[in-house]
Amino acid sequence: MKRLFQSLCCLSLMAFGSLRADDNLVQVAASNCQFKTLVNLLVVTGLDRALQTHDEFTVFAPTDEAFAKLPAETLASLLKPSGRETLTNILKAHVVVGERSLGDIQRPSEGKPIKTLEGTSFLLTGNGLNPRFGNAQVVLANVEASNGIVHVIDEVLMPGPKQDNIVETAKSAGIFNTLLAALTAADLASVFTSDTPYTVLAPTDEAFAKIPKETLASLLLPENKDALVRILKYHVIAGSVSAKDAIGAANAKTLEGSSVRFTLQDGKLTVDNSTVIKNDVVASNGVIHVINTVLMPPSKSVAAKRVPVSVPVQHAPVSSPAPKKCPNQKS
Fold first, then answer.
1. In the chain, N or C: fewer CB atoms in 10 Å?
2. 254 with 136, same domain?
3. What is the DSSP letter of 305?
4. Is residue 299 assigned to a domain?
């Protein structure tokens, strides 16, 4: 009986083949009998309207069986008016802004943090084999809708504590006081509190202490702001670039316009003449690699410009045939 039930579930999960090209995300979910709970909760919170707009989203959609794993009293409390905000946040933790196929977000590396609409980032792991998003297994990927894409998962995701942005992460570490002061003097601090992802090669206070005091004091003066901005931008790469990605690429263009070079020396990651003493410190809007020496841009460089790290989007077609009715559904 259990095998029969699992087989029926698998068949119903393949019911997307009958979708029309203009079906939006909510219609995609509503057309399949395994998402009754999800659709009902979207309607209760009003999120169904957001997912039927022309804006593009990626939805990690828990099945009814996934919701059934929650204690009955938990779901009941979420449906009360007092639990509405919590319920909304839980559902938002299953939504990612933009249309992102599983193949797209798995490249270029495994273990990549993906930020949800709620603000929590979950790790995508599996590298193409048994992919997982947070604690959930992706059981069916790349179901296309007119305004996004659906990945079916077998667990309900629970949002965690709010993750700090790059500036907040640097402040809490307590070893980047000089860097933070320099970002403030250069009017760049606010850049790293936005949602735009960046990779920061962050020199510690000890790294800045290697610079003669008079030189550092001079850089912090208003009349030398341009030089300071140029130095700081040489420590920033557009997009979230993990240490693994950096090693694979070898060179990465900075916001200053020049490129830094990543190498492995005696098992240690280096960038230009600096050693990375801690890598892949994840923030809500990017990643920090801690370095032990302040980097200096070349004397001559191209004009500063942002060059995002991107991967072409490739959508897997949905070709499975789909029954029009759910198992045991009355005609």
1. C
2. no
3. -
4. no
Euclidean distance between CA atoms 255 and 196, whole angstroms:
13
Is residue 208 domain-resident? yes
pLDDT at 117 over 70: yes
Q: 118 and 172 in one domain?
A: no
Domain annotation covers residue 99 = yes
Pairs from 320-325 (Cβ < 8 Å, separation ≥ 24): 320/14, 320/16, 320/17, 321/14, 321/17, 322/14, 322/15, 322/16, 322/17, 322/18, 322/19, 323/11, 323/12, 323/15, 323/18, 324/15, 324/18
Number of structural domains the chain divides into: 2
**pLDDT tens readout for residues 85-115:** 999 999 999 999 999 888 776 665 455 678 8
CB atoms within 10 A of CB 222: 7
The two tokens of residue 20 are 């029309």
Whole-angstrom Cα distance, residue 17 to residue 84?
33
Q: Where are the beta strands (DSSP E) in the chain?
A: 57-62, 95-97, 112-115, 121-125, 132-133, 136-145, 148-153, 198-203, 236-238, 251-253, 259-265, 268-271, 274-283, 286-291
| 109 close to 66: Cβ distance less than 8 angstroms | no
Both tokens of residue 273? 């003449």
**Residue at a domain's end among 95, 122, 153:** 153
Expressed as residue numbers, the domain containing 212 is: 166-291
- Is residue 277 domain-resident? yes
Domain boundary pick from 153, 182, 214:
153
pTM over 0.70: no
Task: Report the alpha-carbon distance of residue 84 to residue 163 in Å, rounded.
Answer: 22
